[in-house]
User: Fold this.
Amino acid sequence: MYDITDLDSFGRMREWMRELRTQLGDKVPIVVVGNKSDLESNRQVSLADAEAEAKKFGGVHYNASARTGNGVKEVFRYLTERKF
Assistant:
C-alpha cells in the first residue's frame, strides 16, 4: 500500500516489493493498493506508474480510500476469491 498523495511512500512500497520477491520469490501474491483515492486532486503518483509497478512484480493494482471505504471491498474480494 502507498499513499497516492506522497511520492516517497510509493518509493518505499517499491522497496518492500523488491524485498518480498528477494525473500519469498513468487510465493506471495502482490496486490498494490493506492490509498487515499478520496484525495485524487492531490495525486502525486500517476495511476499508469502504479499499475506498471504492480505489473512489473506480477501483481495487480487497486485504488482505495480507507476514509470512505471506496475500493476496499474490491481488494479483499480479489484476495479471497483468487486461488494463489
Summary: The chain has a mean pLDDT of 94.
